[in-house]
Amino acid sequence: MPVKLNSPEAASLLPVKGVQLGFAEAHVRKPNRKDVLVMTLVEGSKVAGVFTLNQFCAAPVILCKDFLAQKSGIRALLVNTGNANAGTGEEGLNRAKQTCVALAGLLNLQANQILPFSTGVILEPLPVDKVIAGLPAAIANLKEDNWLNAAEAIMTTDIVAKGTSRQIQLGGKTVTITGISKGSGMIHPNMATMLGYIATDAAVSQSALESIIQYAVNKSFNCITVDGDTSTNDSLILMATNLAGNTEINEDDVKSASADFIALRDAMTDVAIELAQAIVRDGEGATKFMTVKIEGGRDEAECRKVAYAIAHSPLIKTAFFASDPNLGRILAAIGYAGVDKLDVNALKLYLGDVLVAENGGRAAAYLEEQGSAVMKEPEILVRVDLARGDASCTVWTCDFSYDYVKINADYRS
Amino acid sequence: MPVKLNSPEAASLLPVKGVQLGFAEAHVRKPNRKDVLVMTLVEGSKVAGVFTLNQFCAAPVILCKDFLAQKSGIRALLVNTGNANAGTGEEGLNRAKQTCVALAGLLNLQANQILPFSTGVILEPLPVDKVIAGLPAAIANLKEDNWLNAAEAIMTTDIVAKGTSRQIQLGGKTVTITGISKGSGMIHPNMATMLGYIATDAAVSQSALESIIQYAVNKSFNCITVDGDTSTNDSLILMATNLAGNTEINEDDVKSASADFIALRDAMTDVAIELAQAIVRDGEGATKFMTVKIEGGRDEAECRKVAYAIAHSPLIKTAFFASDPNLGRILAAIGYAGVDKLDVNALKLYLGDVLVAENGGRAAAYLEEQGSAVMKEPEILVRVDLARGDASCTVWTCDFSYDYVKINADYRS
């Protein structure tokens, strides 16, 4: 079960002026599931995206990058679950385009004004007819007050829907930000991770929005891992509809780090962090939510090496599942993380607030009961002070349980 | 259960002239287990070792490196299971030294003529009194015809003992090679992996033996992974007792690649490969043995990146456990392995002899039944042709099962 995570209340996901959402049950892979989502954006909206670095990136990812580069004025997003349209070659691209053409026809747009997204099984042909057959129902369902249905429509092995909202004031105007995400396996940051959609009605220029997305993704989706596998389909999209009435936030605001820019950037980043953490809390088979914080590094890169060595270790993740303070496994991971000339006698390891290891071994005052008490919590902080600099980083992950194996051994059946 | 691996017959492990082995049940961690092993070497034996690159390397690893560097004439090896003496700081070093001093006293040697090894739980103090109390029984048990007991005495979570022998002719003299190994979790190559001991009675110089160990480890223990965790204690030791009567193989043989050198090197490498593969076959919870062969790379380094991306992916390893030909997960791993400018349309993916993917997607002639048939086998070949060069590499790994989680969640209890 997800770790301290429930589906949001429908009313808690605030409408964003200029964004409408509609779903369909199109039977892409399984019947009686919301599996097609259409999002429309009012004319003049700005859209920015970051995508997987996987070189086997999916056909829709290739199209998204192409259409965004064309600056064609994105007006709609189309998401299907049940099939990733990845590892599908030239024919996969054709099928993704067909869905864009079909939706463009129904919405009176050009095909390159539609961003397509797919998630699900890799290496199988997209059942394009089913997706297209579902579009009229999704369009009939379009409304602003529909974010929870949208969050449900993009779920695959997710147990709960993921979404959150914020409101801030910019120059006396109320600005709303609402985001949804999906994902619980094949999760390792290498750019944006999984599907995430965050919309705001703020007025913000394209370049400012792109500045915000880079900042937000590095603080959120690029700091999570479930299993170290980088998906073929990861995409994060930021959308701004320009309807809140605030003075447009532009490149000058970015350069001067104006109060409005910082406020919007931080609120959108906050949404991104909550959505990213929700993916980990709903990680496949997760029973524990772990925050791995590395401090005292020479640079952020070496902190990330240590954080991911810990966050990826199956030995550590199974020990956390067992609530076993088998902390030697954490020392071993620090030792093989690849930090140049690490002084193992200088570093300190903490579990929650408990000092566990120093001087190259177990801390003199450490008692196993202290470690056990921390390990029983559903949320656990692992903190390492490398004691060689001022850099730090934080990564979130979950434990590794029987259910992880079960879910992934059964996923296609 | 181990994949196509049984404990060797006692008689199949051939004595090596000049090597005696004796065990004790010293109750280091648990009662009624062979947990202390003493190996003695005849005077004049040559010894070479390679050790973990983990910076949190264990106290005995530090001592081994030190004593080998002193060229003190190694005459005995001392191994305990149940405790790794890693993450134990200065006191760990003291305790490891105490065991060497004690054994040296009993054997009338100097402490720096003893190589110590420990394997088991990290971060707990070595119960040095128990190890030392076990030494007289181990010494009383010393004999040449004792390799199976020795293989059993170094097991931890191993299900079966691991050992093998070869005999070759060098200049009309019969040369024997016998090796044993242990390990089934925290296994990822970054130098020698796990504990491995390979002895021969061949006459071979120190420099030639060191040349052989580097060659052998790169073809064997550095090509396996179970869980991607590099242990704190990994050690591989080659020993040569000089009693076979062959003309000594020396540095000139290495330089000229003489027939005798190649014969001995390849036979010892063959033993190392069998011992390394045995560790994977007995990988924690393993039900499948996977050979991952990458061909057509620009260099070996990029082939290894791809091989390990596949061999480490929990998504792929759980799919193999389920005998599910979910091959898209393999394409995804190839895509995120970090190969520069990979042409995903040029590469080919094979499962056994079956061409699964080409032109960026599923091969036209591929049928799911073909993949399913291969996946049901206990030994599976995954082959990728990167189609951009002549380099290749092979890595061995196992699948990821419920039992992996169970073993590692329970290991300390």
UniProtKB/TrEMBL annotation, chains A, B:
Its EC number is 2.3.1.35, 2.3.1.1. GO terms for biological process: L-arginine biosynthetic process; ornithine biosynthetic process. Keywords: Acyltransferase, Amino-acid biosynthesis, Arginine biosynthesis, Autocatalytic cleavage, Cytoplasm, Multifunctional enzyme, Transferase. The active site is at T193 (nucleophile). Gene3D superfamilies: ArgJ beta chain, C-terminal domain, L-amino peptidase D-ALA esterase/amidase. Substrate binds at T156, K182, T193, E284, N408, S413. GO terms for cellular component: cytoplasm. It is an enzyme of class 2 (transferase). It comes from the Bacteria. The keyword Magnesium does not apply. The record marks A192, T193 as: Cleavage. Pathway: Amino-acid biosynthesis; L-arginine biosynthesis; L-ornithine and N-acetyl-L-glutamate from L-glutamate and N(2)-acetyl-L-ornithine (cyclic): step 1/1; Amino-acid biosynthesis; L-arginine biosynthesis; N(2)-acetyl-L-ornithine from L-glutamate: step 1/4. Belongs to the ArgJ family. Catalyzes two activities which are involved in the cyclic version of arginine biosynthesis: the synthesis of N-acetylglutamate from glutamate and acetyl-CoA as the acetyl donor, and of ornithine by transacetylation between N(2)-acetylornithine and glutamate. This is Arginine biosynthesis bifunctional protein ArgJ. It comes from Methylotenera versatilis (strain 301).
